[in-house]
Structures are given as C-alpha cells and as structure tokens.
Amino acid sequence: MTAKQILIVEDERPIREMIAFGLRRSGFDVREAPDAGSARASVADRRPDLVLIDWMLPDMSGLELTRALKRDKETQEVPIIMLTARAEEQDKVMGLEGGADDYVTKPFSARELLARIKAVMRRRAPQLADDVVEIAGLRIDPAAHQVAAGDKPIDLWTTELRLLHFFMTHPGRVFSRARLLDEVWGEHVFVEERTVDVHIRRLRQALEPTGHKDLLETVRGVGYCFRRDLPVEVPRMPSFMRPLPVRAKPEIRHAYMSPSAFRPVRVICAD
Description:
This protein is an alpha/beta fold. 34% of the residues lie in helices and 18% in strands. The protein has two domains: 5-128, Response regulator (Rossmann fold), CATH 3.40.50.2300; 133-226, Winged helix-like DNA-binding domain superfamily/Winged helix DNA-binding domain (Arc Repressor Mutant, subunit A, Orthogonal Bundle), CATH 1.10.10.10. The model has no long low-confidence stretch (mean pLDDT 83).
C-alpha cells in the first residue's frame, strides 16, 4: 500500500521538524506548512490523508483553519488532529466542536501522537489503516500486501489490491466510478471513469476461483458495492418433486334441443 500522507501545520520550526522526523520513521509521507495560508495551498495541490494543526498560527487560528477545511466539500472528510498547549476543558470542547477529530495537548510523546493518529485513521478512514480485514472468508493484510481465501493466496496487482482494500473497509456501501477514482487512484490522477470497470473485471477474475466473485456487485446506473456476505443460492427442486401444472377445467355447455326437433307425433289407438 502507498504511504499515508500527513500535513503538519505548525509555526514553530523545531517542533514541526521533530514531529515530521518521527512520522517519517514510522513510514508516513510528511508535508509541512508554517501557517494557514501555506496549509491551504498544500491541501489544494494534494489532499492529505490526515492533518495535524497547531492552535496558534501567525495568520489565523488553527481552530478557524479546521472549520474552513470542514466546510469545504473537498476536505470535509479529511481527519484533523489539533495540537496545542491549551489544556482547559473548554478549549478541548471548542476544538472538537469546531471539527477536530482529536485533541492532543503539549507536551506529548512521539508514541502518544502516533497512537492517536492510527486511532483516528481507523475511526474516520479505515482504508488508511493497516489492520487485517476479513469478510466471508476473504482476508486482506494491507501491510503485508497479501490477500487469501482460507489457506489459498490470491495474487493481485497493486491497483486491484488498493481497490479491494477500499471495498472491504466500506462493505454495504455503493460507490460511483468518480468516487472510486478519487479514493483509490487519487484526486489529481486524470483517467477515464471506465478505467474502473477494467480493474473491477480483473478483480472479479482473481476472486472467481475461490468463489468470492459475487461479493462485488454492480449497481446499475450508480456504481459498485461490496457485499457483507456471499449470496445464498436456493437449490432447485428436482423435476419429479415439482407440482404438476394446474390445468383449466373444460368448459361445460348445457345441451339443448332446437324447437325444430320437437315434431308432432300421431298416435293411433286401437279400439
């Protein structure tokens, strides 16, 4: 899986670099911004998977930046963690009500921050976590880049692996092709929407030998959905047990004799 992108918005350079160093060592792709203006430009260029925002910024408060990102349709789903020395309960409430997904007070350890980041990603964006996911006997380990059905491994290309992981972390939801392109390929990758159909077909072909192809459903006119369970096939009844078709009873018409059938009969009686 590709490295998760984290944007650090912190005006104090030593703190920003210290956080960036620890996150890079943990395998994250880190970008830095010293103020809100630089942060918004960075987000517009490439949407991060998570944003760390300091409350006190030189051009605007971190709380205002958080609210602005949550109002924007393009970034409202991006998880945000606020970093601040303000430890009062009222400040925490304001930060969380302003749109932050978590609130970390300074000073904090690198281990605590890393644990908070992973927890927020699992909660808000499960496709970004490295947890093993299993549905209907199909198991994916994103950290090890492995997919298996029971003891049988399934070989997938990188794009199909990311696509399957996204579906398995969002079962039962319908996604359009445009949404899948944004979530799996990225916002700034310009490809045709029908590209999704090609990779869906390849994914189904890879899942067919293990019987998991039917987990991936096509919702006509909308997009695709990943089922929580395999569809149950109803066994067909043997022909000798099927009820015979009910035949219509023959129409019974009342017989009658035409008046011409009644002719006078001459009876001769002997004396």
